[in-house]
Design a protein that fits this description.
Length: about 90
């Protein structure tokens, strides 16, 4: 496999919720930044990626804690714990 050499200004390691939030925030503050997100898994979402989910899995986090203010959660969960099966729907590939 041939390696591609590319120059970037910012590297975000990991495409989990934290990495995606960091990249989004950085680009909001500095939209012209040449930024790349590196992820070793085939899907994004980190521990909540589709490959780690199973039916009935829930987080200890309440609804709304993983959503961006300008990108509302897929459905109103109120104060209920988040059903993990919805996370891949919220973070489209």
């Amino acid at each position: 496999m041939k390696l591609e050499h590319r120059s970037v200004e910012v590297i975000v390691v990991g495409a989990g919720i934290g990495g995606l939030a960091a990249a989004k925030t950085y680009l909001e503050l500095s939209p012209l930044t040449n930024l790349i997100i590196l992820e070793k898994r085939p899907t994004i979402g980190g521990v909540w990626s589709e490959e780690n989910c199973y039916e009935g899995l829930k987080t200890n986090n309440l609804g709304g804690t993983y959503e961006f203010t300008d990108f509302p959660w897929v459905k109103n969960t109120g104060s209920k714990k988040i059903n993990i099966s919805l996370v891949p729907c919220y973070i489209p590939i």
